[in-house]
Amino acid sequence: MFVYEKRLQHPVRIKNPNPKLAKIIMTQYGGPWCAR
């Protein structure tokens, strides 16, 4: 067995969140039905 730790390689700091841009990025990754 193994233990999986979900971590990013680099720290991410979001100063100004942009919901419109996030929705566009999510539709590019997961299709139009992913980012609802």
Provide the residue-averaged pLDDT: 81
Supply Rg.
Answer: 14 Å
The parts where pLDDT drops under 50 for at least 5 residues are none
Order of helices and strands: H
Pfam families: Mn_catalase
Protein name: Manganese catalase
Family: Belongs to the manganese catalase family.
InterPro entries: Ferritin-like (IPR012347), Ferritin-like_SF (IPR009078), Mn_catalase (IPR007760)
Structure commentary:
The chain is built from one helix and no strands. The chain is mostly helical and 36 residues long. The longest helix has 12 residues, at 19-30. It starts with 18 loop residues before the first helix and ends in a 6-residue tail after the last helix. 33% of the residues lie in helices and 0% in strands.
Any chance you could write out the topology, listing elements then pairs?
Blueprint (H helix, E strand, L loop, with lengths): L18 H12 L6
